[in-house]
Write a structure and sequence with these properties.
The protein has helices at about 5-10, 50-65, 75-85, 100-110, 125-130, 155-165, 175-180, 215-225, 235-245, 245-265, 285-290, 305-315, 345-350, 365-380, and strands at about 70, 90-95, 115-120, 135-140, 165-170, 190-195, 205-210, 270-275, 295-300, 320, 330-335, 355-360. It is α/β, with parallel strands linked by helices and about 375 residues long. It folds into 2 domains: about 5-245, 3-Layer(aba) Sandwich (Aspartate Aminotransferase, domain 2), CATH 3.40.640.10; about 245-380, Aspartate Aminotransferase, domain 1, CATH 3.90.1150.10. The strands form 2 sheets. The chain has a 7-stranded mixed sheet, sandwiched between helices. It is globular, with a radius of gyration of 21 Å. The structure holds pyridoxal-5'-phosphate (PLP). Pyridoxal-5'-phosphate binds next to α3 and α4.
């Protein structure tokens, strides 16, 4: 079997039989001519399928070990695509500390269509077990969670779900297929905001749903086409460019993030540092077991109000104060005020997010420079 480095590169090459282009061509065509009624060259209309997008879908499916992938217009479109598999009356269990946009889509949109959601501490299997009902149809896992990087025991949750015939879906955005292989841990459906590490260059907002069972392959293809959730070929072409360097980027993100986390962890002004690669992380051993790297996200806590955070952020020169993550450049943000503001104050507090919580997406810069930048910011407090 080819290694991830090889699959990431070769997913986007050697496909053009017209001119032997080395790189996958961009086919922006919205429609494809039939040779005669019922006969075409594999594509009829770009909402249902497109050759450029197909190259990306096959590359992502290959990296995840899936049998099919549908690339979607945003990461949220991928999440919505999976939730559309449900029907009124179904019950969903998920973490209380998932990405705020996923929480909003579940709590404020799909709940209105008669789907019931229980948000709980997914790190505690007994909580998951206690919440199961006869109508539980889906367990939605996000691990590491956003922003506190808690680790869910994926194998334990999928074993429980399988014993009850419950579908499981995992948002693998934070780890990417390079550091976490959810199908090996028993998950049925994988979702990505490919906006993040898979693209890696902060120049497109896109997503993906990966499946490995004919039933779900077909159902997801149907839903995403019927609802019009699929990705533009232009965006797919950009992601194909980004995905080629995914393994190398992930290794560097993780190495630099570990150094940043080590520095924050010993700083007297930092109350707490959350990074699965720190031995003090409560699920460090579980992280080592189910992930092959600890990723590029680091979260830490300061005793700071909004004005003090502004002073800290204002001193930083290398970190942009911005939402999103997974790009080559480092970003920093305050989830209480920014990425998770779509959750109520109560929901944020239950999730463990505080006004002084700071989330860092560590880019590919040198660790020494990033640490010096943070040091300058902390010195101003
Ligand atoms: C874990 C996670 N899932 C899903 C999404 C949604 O993706 P998008 O912004 O591409 O719609 C995000 C966005 O930040 C995310 O962090």
């Amino acid at each position: 079997m080819l290694k991830p480095e090889t699959r990431a590169v070769h997913g986007s090459t050697c496909r053009d039989t017209a001119f032997n282009s080395v790189i996958m061509p961009l086919y922006p065509s919205s429609t494809f001519a039939f040779e005669r009624i019922g006969v075409h060259k594999g594509f009829d209309y770009t909402r249902s399928g497109n050759p450029t997008r197909r190259a990306l879908e096959e590359t992502i499916a290959g990296l995840e070990g899936g049998s099919a992938c549908v690339c979607t217009g945003t990461g949220m479109a991928a999440v919505a695509g999976v939730l559309h598999l449900l029907k009124p009356g179904d019950h969903v269990i998920t973490g209380h500390d998932i990405y705020g946009g996923c929480y909003r889509l579940m709590h404020d949109v799909f709940a209105k269509y008669g789907i019931h959601f229980t948000f709980l501490d997914m790190t505690d299997l007994s909580c998951v077990e206690d919440a199961l009902t006869d109508s539980t149809a889906l367990i939605w896992i996000e691990t590491p969670s956003n922003p506190l990087l808690r680790i869910v025991d994926v194998q334990a949750v999928t074993t429980l779900a399988r014993s009850r015939g419950i579908l499981t879906a995992l948002d693998n955005t934070f780890m990417s297929p390079y550091f976490q292989q959810p199908f090996d841990l028993g998950v049925d459906i994988i979702v990505h905001s490919t906006t993040k590490y898979i693209n890696g260059h902060s120049d497109v907002v896109v997503g993906a749903i990966v499946t490995k069972d004919l039933q779900w392959d077909e159902r997801v293809a149907f839903i995403t086409n019927a609802c019009g959730l699929t990705e533009s070929p232009w965006d797919a072409w950009l992601v194909l460019r980004g995905i080629r360097s995914l393994p190398q980027r992930m290794r560097t993100h993780a190495a630099v993030a570990q150094e940043v986390a080590n520095y924050l962890n010993q700083h007297p002004k930092v109350l707490r540092t959350h990074y699965p690669g720190l031995p003090e992380h409560p699920q460090h051993e579980l992280a080592k077991k189910q992930m092959s790297g600890f990723g590029g996200m680091v979260t830490f806590e300061l005793e700071a109000n909004q004005a003090q955070l502004d002073i800290f952020f204002g001193k930083l020169q290398l970190f942009s104060l911005a939402e999103s993550l997974g790009g080559v450049e480092s970003l920093i943000e305050a989830p209480w005020y920014m990425s998770h503001v779509s959750m109520s104050e109560e929901a944020r507090a239950t999730a463990g997010i505080k006004p002084g919580t700071i989330r860092v997406s560590v880019g590919l810069e040198h660790a020494d420079d990033l640490i010096q930048d943070i040091e300058n910011g902390l010195a101003a407090l």
